[in-house]
Amino acid sequence: MNLQERLKAEVEARRDDLVALTQDLIRMPTLNPPGLNYREICDYLDRRLLHAGFQTELIRAEGAIGDSDKYPRWNLVARREGVLAGECVHFNSHIDVVDVGHGWTMPPFGGDVKDGKVYGRGACDMKGGLAASIIAAEAFIDICPGYAGAIEISATADEESGGFGGVAYLAKKGYFSPDRVDHVIIPEPLNKDRICLGHRGVWWAEIETKGEIAHGSMPFLGDCAVRHMGAVMREMEDKLFPALAARRTDMPVVPEGARQSTLNINSIHGGEAEQELDYTGLPSPCVPDRCRMVIDRRFLIEEDIGEVEAEIRDMLERVRMDRESFDYDMRELHRVLPSMTERDAPVVVSVGQAIQKVFGREAEYVVSPGTYDQKHIDRIGRLKNCIAYGPGILDLAHKPDEYVGIDDMVQSAQVMALTLYDLLGK
């Protein structure tokens, strides 16, 4: 049996350990917001990786967005040097998970195993991927103890809310500098035989329409900001949404519906604020003088960010011309440029070869509809040799009864271990 077959067998032999590790991670409810149990999960991983011979650092993202004494943003970076000098392969996984929501039939933090799947919030997004990367690294170290270079594993905060208390903070501190790291694999759930090369761009903005408060029995004495926002929405429906749907990209974005430009109305708030649940009275009769909308615009690599913003402002100006007393403010909340690694990048080639060896077929190359922490590694760290690859089905992320398949985790861990062999073991 050659070394690559031994590596695959070694990962398979650790199947029970992989399941148990995934269960342990799921059972720590690292909900974001607000950012619960970050230190607990980092301490757990710290003990595990120290035992495997890694040098570890616990890093709090002090001063980052979201960091506070009540909810500190903790991150873990672990590194294991090889016997000889060489390149560094870094596996980066986020530790935070989104709200549970409704509709679960399985305990969301139980880590229950049923029909070959591990269930729980964060199972596929992305604690199963984190566990797979750890098992892959440990198996590789045992089979190839004389490897060259270094292996890094990071567990980082806040990817679900932009990654500013996690990868962005670490990138600013140099942890993803090309002087330190050569290859980055982010085990996001893009399917076990897919390599994700990057993501679309995102532009978030808040639009506020203005009016004048008055008594609700005499609305003609006021100016309804909600009606003004309704005119904005009508303009979106009549002109903006059709225009966006007509734009297509050459990026291999999945699913197919995301190969166009999109806009989501994330929220609308207008008029009197909602009262506490224990309030039993009626609202007061007032004409709303403010209405706020948050929009989430996803754009293509062929689009310019300046034109994306100008298109929304032009739409608002058209509404202004058609409506007496229409006034608005618009402010940017967040922007991320599209990112896409080249197909011939070293980490892409290596993972592609490993997928061929494990599954007996060529990898599929895709781009994510939403952003993930590659944006910070690319833009802040200036490291282009970065992809997402991991177990799990993207469509299950953030859904009730989220799960990750055990066979998928084992096979993805085999791909990761073979990638380590290709990049460091020879």
How would you portray this structure in words?
α1 packs antiparallel against α10, α2 (15-26) packs across α4 and α4 packs across α10 (406-425). It is built from ten helices and 16 strands. The longest helix is centred in the first third of the chain and has 21 residues, at 123-143. The radius of gyration is 24 Å and the shape is elongated. It has two domains: 3-199 and 338-425, 3-Layer(aba) Sandwich (Aminopeptidase), CATH 3.40.630.10; 201-273 and 282-335, 2-Layer Sandwich (Alpha-Beta Plaits), CATH 3.30.70. It has 426 residues and is of the alpha/beta class. The strands form four sheets. The chain has a six-stranded mixed beta sheet. Strands 10-11-9-12 form a four-stranded antiparallel beta sheet, covered by helices on one side. The chain has helices at 3-13, 15-26, 38-51, 123-143, 167-172, 225-245, 305-322, 346-359, 374-379, 406-425, and strands spanning 55-60, 74-81, 84-94, 113-114, 117-119, 148-156, 183-186, 194-199, 201-210, 262-270, 290-299, 328-336, 339-340, 364-368, 386-388, 403-405. Pathway: Amino-acid biosynthesis; L-lysine biosynthesis via DAP pathway; LL-2,6-diaminopimelate from (S)-tetrahydrodipicolinate (succinylase route): step 3/3. This is Probable succinyl-diaminopimelate desuccinylase. Pfam families: M20_dimer, Peptidase_M20. Residues 198-318 form the Peptidase M20 dimerisation domain. It catalyses: N-succinyl-(2S,6S)-2,6-diaminopimelate + H2O = (2S,6S)-2,6-diaminopimelate + succinate.
Mean pLDDT across every amino acid position: 97
Distance between the termini: 16 Å
Beta strands, count: 16
Which percent range describes the beta-strand content? 15-25%
Radius of gyration: 24 Å
CATH architecture assignment of the largest domain = 3-Layer(aba) Sandwich
CATH-assigned fold name of the largest domain: Aminopeptidase
Count up the domains.
2
Structural shape = elongated
SSE string, helix = H, strand = E?
A: HHHEEEEEHEHEEEHEEHEEHEHEEH
Cofactor: Co(2+); Zn(2+)
GO molecular function: metal ion binding; succinyl-diaminopimelate desuccinylase activity
Pfam families: M20_dimer, Peptidase_M20
Domain Peptidase M20 dimerisation: 198-318
